[in-house]
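Hi, here's the filled form for the chain we discussed.

Project: internal
Contact: R.S.
Residues: 96
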Amino acid sequence: MTFPDVLTLEETAEYLRLPPAVIEHEAVQGHIPGRRIAESWRFLRTALDDWLRRYDGRTLLVQQAGAFADDPTLTHLRTTVYSDRGRTEAESGTEG
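And the returned structure, exactly as it came back:
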């Protein structure tokens, strides 16, 4: 199937092979690139393709954590998270 450059919610769901409700939820949360216009959603196919190519949950987490890089509690928080997981940050390969 050929998809247009600008997709509706339903076309995006078909394109990504996900239920429309999932697409809408993720778009509302800002996890999928899209725009709400009045009561309708529109998605650029190229933006979705770019998002799929670069989407990585760990990358997203690191970008979000970057906003808190100067927070003095970040080191303690990271240590606690890895401790709760039963391993050190060095063992996970993310120590930087």
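Let me know if anything looks off before we file it.
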